[in-house]
Amino acid sequence: MPRPANPLVRERLLDAGLTLFHARGINAVGIKEITDTAGVPKGSFYSYYDSKNHFVAAVIDHYWSSVVRDQSLLLTDTSAPPLRRLVAFFETLTQEHAQRGFALGCLLGNFALELTDDNGEARQRLADIMDHWSALIGACLAQARSTGAVTASTETTELASMIIESWEGAVMRGRVDRSRVPFDRFLTVSLPRLLGAAQLSV
Amino acid sequence: MPRPANPLVRERLLDAGLTLFHARGINAVGIKEITDTAGVPKGSFYSYYDSKNHFVAAVIDHYWSSVVRDQSLLLTDTSAPPLRRLVAFFETLTQEHAQRGFALGCLLGNFALELTDDNGEARQRLADIMDHWSALIGACLAQARSTGAVTASTETTELASMIIESWEGAVMRGRVDRSRVPFDRFLTVSLPRLLGAAQLSV
Lengths: 202, 202
Fold this sequence. Notes:
The structure is a homodimer. Chain A has nine helices and no strands. Chain A is mainly alpha-helical.
């Protein structure tokens, strides 16, 4: 009879997976290393996940719900003007990258470039979360447009996607150069231009 | 006595590495698979490269000299106006991604997100090539500025870097979604906006 799932073990596996995958990528990390880091027997992994691919999909969810969602609260805090929230969101992400020496990149971006056709479930989860992220930023942009702070005519979810894509490219370059320069030019030049403003007066 | 290096074997190793790394990433591909694909004995690998990391750096050079440089000739063909060349360059890259079903991403971007501090030499090579790419596009933008076609005040190599970063993010999203949508919005919206134009009249 299979033992009942232990939520604490599941959480430890997910935390271990998140840390190891973020530092070294999916392919470089084996299941034994994940269970060792989590402090559980290797065999117990398969009580929780059918496959590494299934686990990767769960790590993506875990990253979104435990890490990104906290920061995305900045986007929905209506006590601040929408563009101020948007800038605060990306400034906070930039600080986190700075704390890691710009060395790890964005987990979602890293996964995006490592997942192949063999990882159907995980890739679909990633696509859903990218869409969700675009929608969150898009809602913030729609509020900014209603106040006249954004004049660009592009549909706001599309505009949000372009902003996220510029951001992910900046994170990538920052990782190659171990530098904040791409982050700063995203915040001071790319973001305002994509929004159709010479600069963001927030 | 070590056998003299055979340029054909070296070329076959590099071609095999390029194809395999592009399809599945660096970490997922072992040296035996590379030598098998190249049709050479595994031991011969080490007559050419001290380590996998050294080989990865050589594959980056090979990619630049055999693939990207051909396309970058589009950027330096002074028979066309500079912004027309820039758009043609990214349109050509988009066509290549389309031919691969948007499934593989950009080799440079993939490497950027897979290389860690353990890959110092390869990461430095990647940084150099990204700088070189920025300089090529920057030179094209400087010509566009001299003719009044670009009005954005940002220094042209910086502007080129932002364009490349937006492009790399679009390639990443296109890979997640297996879609040309991010490529099209890069060409029709992000690129003109980053250049400070409502649209590119080229």
